[in-house]
Amino acid sequence: MLAVTAVGCLTGGFFLHKWLRRRIAHILTGEQRRALIPPGECISPGAKAVAASADVELRSHMHRLKDGTQLFSYILKPKTKAPTHAVVFLHGYSSNSDLYVENLAEFARAGAMVLMPDLPSHGRSDGLLAYIDDWWAFMDKIWEHTEILVSQECKSLPLFVAGNSLGGGLAICMALQRPTYFRGVVLKGPMLTVSEEVKPPWIVQMVFKHLVARLLPTWPITPVKSLADFDFRVPTQGPVYEKVNPFSMKGTSPFLASGREMGFTFTDWLDDHLKEVRTPFIVLHGKADKITDPATSQRLYDEAKATDKTLKLYDGVYHCELICCTPGGAEFTGLTWLPEQVSATQACTNDAIAWMAERI
């Protein structure tokens, strides 16, 4: 009887696990994602426009790490002049570099060579979609890929790192690990903690952290509110943006391991090391951000040991409005951005460019 019950539970668990991942079953692996959109093709209208432009060169690459993992990247650089500096740009959770090519082309027009990797398990890189089972192994792969890109493309140029959302958390983590590797760090709405707006009750967090995530790491049932609903000041815009991204989680909750590593492993570690940041940095954060907490960006600015540090907080600006509200983004989604959303994206981009220009 016990054996029959066990078999029934295992069978039920198998089908439930499969059902929970049904929306992303066609893009779970890097091979599936590259088959859907090959590395040589642009995804977004913004990236396609940059590829056809007269002033910015766009190239794509696949690199193989020592363990066999294949990672995708874009390289942007000015066509009409030699680059004066280089920027490694790290995108956010469940995103990919293609969505930001249009925005980062402004960096290239200002003289930067921009290295834009798809993070491990994201976009056209290998790995279970948006899955992070070990934060530090994740960081090791990002470092290995970064070193390949820098050595091949720009080892003699002043080097900056810029990150959006999760990418901002990764950027500050890299700066803490190697304080002198980058000349400066640009943080856009960085994930330094997870906002209380999207967290479940404390007791649910503890059960998730200490029990469920260890037992069921690849189950997409992290107890968190839908992030897409908080992306923009117009609530309906976020789900649309998520839907048109071919490699998003499609409304599926984060895998339990990913939720644990982003929500606890990294943020708990950072909480203990925030004061140790010494690399020059600028933080750009919307005051109305409900996904990543602007109060933690303020704390980073207040407590970090760095003597060269800047904080810019934008009134009324939501999480994705720092980088997404571009003409190509409107074409991609079919949305019409509000004038203040367009202004927010432009201001954030210009502030980042100006800050780096003063430190080349």
Secondary structure elements and pairings:
Layout: H1 2-20, H2 30-36, H3 45-51, E1 56-64, E2 70-78, E3 85-90, H4 101-109, E4 112-117, H5 135-153, E5 159-164, H6 166-177, E6 184-188, H7 202-215, H8 237-244, H9 256-273, E7 281-286, H10 294-303, E8 309-314, H11 327-333, H12 339-357
Parallel strand pairs: 3-4, 3-5, 5-6, 6-7, 7-8
Antiparallel strand pairs: 1-2, 2-4
Helix pairs in contact: 3-4, 3-11, 6-9, 7-9
How confident overall, as mean pLDDT? Answer: 94
Beta-strand residue percentage: 5-15%
| Rg for CA atoms | 20 Å
| Total of domains | 1
Q: Please identify the structural class as seen in this structure.
A: alpha/beta
Q: State the end-to-end distance.
A: 72 Å
Give the low-confidence spans: 4-9
SS elements, strand count: 8
Number of helices: 12
In helices, the fraction of residues equals: 40-55%
Report the major sheet: 8 strands, mixed
